[in-house]
Records
---
Amino acid sequence: AQSVSQHNHHVILSEAASLELGCNYSYGGTVNLFWYVQYPGQHLQLLLKYFSGDPLVKGIKGFEAEFIKSKFSFNLRKPSVQWSDTAEYFCAVNAPLGFQKLVFGTGTRLLVSP
Amino acid sequence: SQTIHQWPATLVQPVGSPLSLECTVEGTSNPNLYWYRQAAGRGLQLLFYSVGIGQISSEVPQNLSASRPQDRQFILSSKKLLLSDSGFYLCAWSVSGGNGYTFGSGTRLTVV
């Protein structure tokens, strides 16, 4: 079955620190990849997505992610985090020609201290 | 424009009572529809998805069921709630191909 692994369950950083959240998926075919964010008390929002083309994807609020096909990875990065980035981050994958349901990782809770 | 409505926002139900959560989509036709549950420490778990009227796929064995009586209506139900059914339930839709998803605002269900 398709699965998504987010190995960092809780991350604590100070403001201005760099962030990298890991995401690995298990599926051998063509995939679409997503990162979603859920700020405290708010709805799930799309940060960025990869469908094809340039494997380095830029999203909102200074986030970016790099798709490395050989590693089945789609890690999320931000060079300098802010207190307002405190949230839960979810990686997700689907297969446009295969399983169209969106499969999520278990999420990473990020706490940024001021 | 395309919107998704999900209600109620919060619900407190006793153990053994029935459940019905409704989700409707506007501004699109023949969407793929999904029910997810978000439980503490477990991320977002796909419960059911539907690619058409009356077509329901169940992802995990559980105490819940889903139905799609109309093209843009997706209902999550239970005949008798368990304590373990507590959680945050999200409805979502996507177009065929799954290139984009829109999530509802969610229902927080507490079974007491």
---
Amino acid sequence: NAGVTQTPKFRILKIGQSMTLQCTQDMNHNYMYWYRQDPGMGLKLIYYSVGAGITDKGEVPNGYNVSRSTTEDFPLRLELAAPSQTSVYFCASSYDGTQYFGPGTRLLVL
Amino acid sequence: DQQVKQNSPSLSVQEGRISILNCDYTNSMFDYFLWYKKYPAEGPTFLISISSIKDKNEDGRFTVFLNKSAKHLSLHIVPSQPGDSAVYFCAASAVDSSNTGKLIFGQGTTLQVKP
């Protein structure tokens, strides 16, 4: 049981490039979330999903997109990377209100 | 509009003593509170939680206290150990009609336990 896994661990992007951050969970959780954490700040919710085929915006969704075609996977897409998207991204899943996090993806946009 | 606040960015305590981390919230609809611990280059890990129908929850060395009238919760670690050195986040959620389970996080408090 791997829990929540995220790939890649680290990525450098040039301004304007696009990429997909992968998130997979093997706990059969319905709820999944994407957060970003900036230095000295808490986690800010980007997007969330309450089940396959259902997604909704969180607190800071601009510049991102998500999809949820299966229960296990919840990829986060950056279409036109900007320096303001330099951050650490965490994916989480839940079934009872307690969220379980992946190890994070560190993204640097230059 | 910071609905969950951890006003102390850092805390330093001696090994064996008590660590008390504090968290304040503004939204009276919050009914479930959690503490997470985060080591560098890792994801947050769940530590302990409390429902609004309780005022205390204990798990080994960790106890969370909830004061609903003051909209305040605290995490007590007794005794503190060097391995407890990490960033601690409090988080809160409110029951909503969509049952989304969304959490609102505080900014975090860095705890350093000195040997």
---
Amino acid sequence: EPEVTQTPSHQVTQMGQEVILRCVPISNHLYFYWYRQILGQKVEFLVSFYNNEISEKSEIFDDQFSVERPDGSNFTLKIRSTKLEDSAMYFCASSQTGQGAGGYTFGSGTRLTVV
Amino acid sequence: DQQVKQNSPSLSVQEGRISILNCDYTNSMFDYFLWYKKYPAEGPTFLISISSIKDKNEDGRFTVFLNKSAKHLSLHIVPSQPGDSAVYFCAATLASGTYKYIFGTGTRLKVLA
């Protein structure tokens, strides 16, 4: 079954450093998403991406965050200057249609630890 | 901003019995609801969904019920199996005009053999 692949599975970074989280969505999917889950809290929407541009973002997704689809397969989330509170599990997801009703396929996540 | 709430953080059920997971929402504009299952070290996996124009949707052992007047939905798993032990998240969205899901905090289900 097609899957969304995320790398690395775990990343530890120093506060203030830049990190790039990588995702390979399902090949025929057109819509891409990032969510995060801070330990013990709910899964929160960060951003959606379609046709090479951000289609929607949450208030969490401030200027420190950016997304990019640098080639035909990868989808990345960059955090420019990490803070302690950025420590969380980051999930990438993709879907064929943009309608929220369709159900996404999530990756296994990248655990980001900021020290 | 808790638009979607799962008030039971955990639930234990004997194998073979029914598991009932509950979810409440506050935003009456939501018109599509989903349940996801999550195992440790994995991403959420889509289980079942329901449109607000329905009150029930069934898929094998999984049935989702929606009570719009009460702003409440529930997931029934019958019969429960040990492999169902996971964290279950409900999520809500609009059928169009948005790309995001609003998730609840999850309920950890443990099915005892």
---
Amino acid sequence: GAGVSQSPSNKVTEKGKDVELRCDPISGHTALYWYRQSLGQGLEFLIYFQGNSAPDKSGLPSDRFSAERTGGSVSTLTIQRTQQEDSAVYLCASSLALGTSGGAFLDTQYFGPGTRLTVL
Amino acid sequence: TQLLEQSPQFLSIQEGENLTVYCNSSSVFSSLQWYRQEPGEGPVLLVTVVTGGEVKKLKRLTFQFGDARKDSSLHITAAQTGDTGLYLCAGLRSNDYKLSFGAGTTVTVRA
């Protein structure tokens, strides 16, 4: 498997339950991003990890959302006490690194197929 | 509030026709990217434009970055059914590594 994989592909849960979404990045990629895509909206940045640096959590919408990346590879996005407005497709992307300093160039991000989360 | 506004939201055309999708902002970006996303899949990067006024061509697709680096357009010549998909623009601001995405344009090319 050369691409980014995510599991589960679909998750239906009841309001108030916790969910965990998993992302397996491309081997050797040091940067990993999580995005949320709601119907009719573009992708909303949630968090990124780069190597051993502290993650940029500035996009997490509330303290119910958290993410970790173990051993610089697999990442898990956890949503506690899910709400109906959390329903969306959650996309993970990985890249070789972040890009050049100054942000003029981003290393190409390769996206997984996403996890569709439905909160009833 | 979207930092990048895409128009139109939906576009349906006949095979062989041309189309243009616009991406506008009041913010300046150091670079701008265009992605295509198909149902059930993640977005795939088509192009990155960096210099104001830059034009890049990818077969029948032409991408332009505005002179002021606040807007961009994607033009498809002689559209094919395989061009059907959601087209997303995404901008990167200086000293940042977070992309800001537009809401997307859903393009349908009818046979």
